[in-house]
Design a protein that fits this description.
By secondary structure, the protein is mainly alpha-helical. The protein has one domain. It contains four helices and two strands, in the order E-E-H-H-H-H. It has a two-stranded antiparallel ribbon with strand order 1-2. Helix 2 runs parallel beside helix 4 and helix 3 packs antiparallel against helix 4. It is elongated.
Length: 101
Amino acid sequence: MVVGFAPGRLFASPALAQACNHSLTESIRAVELAVGSIAVHSADTVDAKRNIANIHWMQGELALIREACSRGRDVEAAWRLEEVELRLNSGRRRAVAACGQ
């Protein structure tokens, strides 16, 4: 059984654990935890809205990843996971750059 974050709550998905290979499942868990731990700290409401929109997009993609795994579509799940990781890393780079200003 896999335990991770879905939009605003924990989820447990036996289908994910049974359908995806072990390394992909571990990667999905790590990204779910990272997305679930994002906090929006911004005095700029436009920036905060953009951050919230990014979080919602990533959560939506994670739901599609879980669905792909439950249907045995590891390639789709891996591709979507890579897209989420790219956006997550891009957000981290922007946050680090903002702290340096």
